[in-house]
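Per-residue structure
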Amino acid sequence: MPNRYYGSFAPGLQNFIAEILGEGLPGLKIVRLLDGAVIFETAASYDRLNFFCFNNIFQVIDMRDCRRAADRESWIGGALSRGRGSPVIGENSRKIRSFRVIFSRENVPTPLSGKLRNQAENRIARESGLRVNRSLPDTEFWFLFRREGGEGRDGPGEAPHAGGTGPGLGLFMKRLTRHPSFDKSLHKGELPPPIAWTLCRLSNPKAGERVADPFCGYGAIPQARLRHFPPGEFFASDIDSRALTLSREKFGGKPPPHCHFDRIDAGQLNRIIPPASLDAIITDPPWGFHEKLPCPPEEFYTPFLAVFAGLLKDGGAGVFLCGRGEEFRAAGEKTGFTLTRNIPILLSGKKAEIFVLRKGATGQQPSV
């Protein structure tokens, strides 16, 4: 039987997610592709997925459509019954000794009656042999409800509910990722690791490349590129000395010898990097929302992009995350880049856009 997973990601990335899953998982079946989440099946176990674009990954125990609010609470009891004997509940490593139950609607914790909570905790405890720990558990079991994603049937290939088409979707799942919430673990303004991984992946990375991040900030992009797509040489720079110090700390204060950290203005990067020598520039430039830009956004981005164009080899990639889409696009057109892909996303509740530019490339793909 294939494993069924639920992966959450930044809204807007669904087509990109579908692409990379298809490339990396032979025999993949995408059950439902949603805004900010994908439900997929594969024979691969969790430790073999090797995708780092997800905020969290869960293994699905039960999935059903829920038409009305009343259906949701009745569904929980049914999901617990259908999950009886599930290896997802019962098989846990020695490191997993405790759990808690999370009830969520549209990714917002939702209170339920004490009776229903106790029913869920007692049933899972019996099935798993784990003890309840509502504060610091080793794993979590989720009852997640979404308005989007229902198809008016009890499950893929099953008959629709009688009397309605019902858009709501209920999922009973076990959380597999164990990292803390990014909202609590990152510095203010720090790029979440899944977004940093996505930006690196969109550059079509290859071993031995020379890559730069001229606005490295807290080091999310250098860390993602060096960990998951090792380059031949990496140049990380920023004008903020404190951010550079914190960026170095991601490598224990001792980055590898082929990763250089420099305090320098991005517009002067050609002082330390030879022209036409970079294969890719991957960065998250200032948006001008938290700190005011010294001039209008288009005027701010244009000089930087002109310098970057001079540093890239012909065909080299520039991957940029920016909250000033219109102004950034105009600056790119002025500086000899060709837009090959752009992906509007929602990041921490704010609209942003990922731009993939090529030096000397021709043609433009539609927005994704």
Observations:
- Confidence is low (pLDDT under 50) at residues 152-166, 363-368.
